[in-house]
Design a protein that fits this description.
Layout: H1 14-17, E1 26-29, E2 32-35, H2 42-58, E3 65-68, E4 73-74, E5 88-89, E6 93-96, E7 102-103, E8 106-108, E9 113-117, H3 123-136, E10 141-146, E11 151-157, E12 163-170, E13 174-175, E14 185-186, H4 187-190
Parallel strand pairs: 4-8, 9-10
Antiparallel strand pairs: 1-2, 3-6, 4-5, 6-9, 7-8, 10-11, 11-12, 13-14
Amino acid sequence: MSMSAPKPDREYTYGDYLQWPDEERWEIIGGVPYDMSPVPSGKHQEISGELFFQLRSFFQDRSCRVFAAPFDVRLPQGDEKDEDITNVVQPDLSIICDLDKLDERGCKGTPTVVIEIISPSTAKKELNEKFNLYEKSAIPEYWVVFPGLNVIVVYSLDDEGKYQKTGEYAASQVLTSPLFPGLEVKLEEVFQIK
């Protein structure tokens, strides 16, 4: 049975999330629900599609998998039961290299890389709440895509477990990652610069 839309006056869990209407998209960060509407723009979808294509092609015969939203990533902060998890996000793209974290509901645990495509309505959440959650969850790399600037900024965990900006790539460049030798993301194609 579906419950009505969540209210921001209490802490919610993955157990609550599973009861919400399927036609609505939500994320929970620290027990706080975030509505994921409106529908992403055409440019957002084109960027997501091209990134997915290039990443999927690279990982075709490798042990990592690439997933596009909607795809639930549950980020437990300890050993809590699945239904008690208070962090459930849907990154635009996730690269998961520990396939034991995959189940029929998505991913439980930290992906190797999460990628978020910024829009004016999501910028604060992506650059604050999600940044802090991904850092706290020890996700090795966080890529932030700025469609209006045709730029991708890469953050990597340092030895103290804090994100440091390790790259800023413009549309004319090729994005590489020390996590994946040989990976070359052609940003001219991602941003469709002709």
